[in-house]
Write a structure and sequence with these properties.
The protein is mainly alpha-helical. The protein is built from 3 helices and no strands.
């Protein structure tokens, strides 16, 4: 009976030793993971701590570009209107000139040019 009790105590102590060893390994792993996470957090902070200011400046720049684009778009529309008007005036002028050239009364009024010999 004493042998059974000693064997059970040895088995229980081996089981407890194995559990303690696993806890010790888990602690070492957690220390390494903690160090890695601290380094990652520091790196992320160094990279991102200026991000809010950069984002604000970027938004201001984008808003400025939008306003400039809107002003340029209005100017472009005005220039297109002016060019369209100039094109219409050119067409009208050409049609007036062509109609004047085709009219018989205008042909008779034009002085003839003689070739010099």
């Amino acid at each position: 009976m004493v042998t059974v009790v000693v064997v059970l105590n040895v088995l229980i102590s081996l089981l407890c030793f194995y559990a303690a060893w696993q806890v010790w390994n888990l602690r070492r792993t957690l220390v390494v993971v903690t160090a890695i996470l601290i380094n990652v957090e520091r790196s992320a902070y160094l990279v991102l701590h200026g991000a809010p200011n950069a984002i604000s400046q970027g938004q201001l720049g984008v808003n400025g570009l939008r306003e400039s684009y809107q002003q340029l778009d209005i100017q472009l529309q005005k220039v297109q209107q002016v060019l369209t008007l100039i094109g219409l005036l050119q067409r009208a002028w050409r049609s007036v000139r062509r109609s004047n050239l085709r009219s018989p009364s205008k042909r008779l009024r034009r002085p003839r040019r003689y070739k010099q010999r």
